[in-house]
Amino acid sequence: MKTVYSPDHILRNAKTELAGGQLVTPFECHQRADYVVAAIKSQQLGQIVPPTQWPRQYVESIHDPGYLTFLDTVWQRWVNAGNQGEAIPNVWPSRSMPSQRIPRHIEGQLGYYSLAGETSISGGTAEAAWVSANVALSAAELLNQHEHSAFALCRPPGHHASNDQYGGYCFINNAAIAAQKLRYDGAQKVAILDVDFHHGNGTQKIFYQRDDVLFCSIHGDPMVAFPYFLGFADETGEGPGAGHNLNIPLPPGTPYSIWRVALCRAITKILGYGADAIVVSLGVDTFENDPISFFKLRSDDFIDMGKTIASMGLPTLFIMEGGYAVEEIGTNTVNVLKGFENLAG
Hints:
The chain has a single domain, classed as Histone deacetylase domain (Arginase, Chain A, 3-Layer(aba) Sandwich), CATH 3.40.800. Helices cover 36% and strands 13% of the residues. It has ten helices and ten strands. Strand 6, helix 7 and strand 7 form a beta-alpha-beta unit. The longest helix is centred in the middle third of the chain and has 20 residues, at 125-144. The protein is globular, with a radius of gyration of 19 Å. The termini are close together. The model has no long low-confidence stretch (mean pLDDT 97).
């Protein structure tokens, strides 16, 4: 399996994250990708290739142009306003202030365009997000070149980013733009299978009223896990998208035996939908020792996960999402991909 990867992900190098009432070293850091690349090389998964540059309109097909302009300019505007630290929002259009007016001041715009306060913005963030989007688009193109599968080693991740909001370490929704590219390239129906521990709220929001992209997510119960306000089982789609959104929230301590039942349920949904291709939002933060999650999957379980996904027999694009800086992130990611390859042949 070919991997698309760019070392320019390191441009995203924030020093702070708001966690537990403190500014801590971010869990989403460059070592994540380093571990995965090292495992790909040691396990001889396949060729690692650089991304190509894609036209901006591929990303604009998913994201609001005003939001993208904000993303491109936020850091310099933050610095120009005299701020010394990294950009962190401190005010939001809350339930008691539901205004849709976009403030002119950068502090107000940070709140308008963010969905959470943990994700600091620093110099290089936007540049890395655009590189990550090109990684996803380049990997999607491999499927058009008759590859049965491909892996986009995206950093920063993307599935929390909606059409006009960032958060949860995500700025551009890589899985969404890849799915949209597959649609442009001839796939009549695309399924997105999100196996990250956290619900892909951004991906759900983007496709919630569409019937040409099915979204299925297995994740920690949002009553007790980020992003908290989306990802419930009764969210099944609206309008043309009714019935095309499947959420399977699971409780703390879920082992693979239970998690796999949920995976098979999602696969049944995908096969019944008649998808032409699959985009897998591959988060391995379901691992038992992940520092910010509460499922109990073990490293060997990820091999079976890959085999089970391969059982659908469909062209499959893996997009890197979460899984935090423990060394096993490399092992677990490659286990999924090798398990997929071993069954897919």
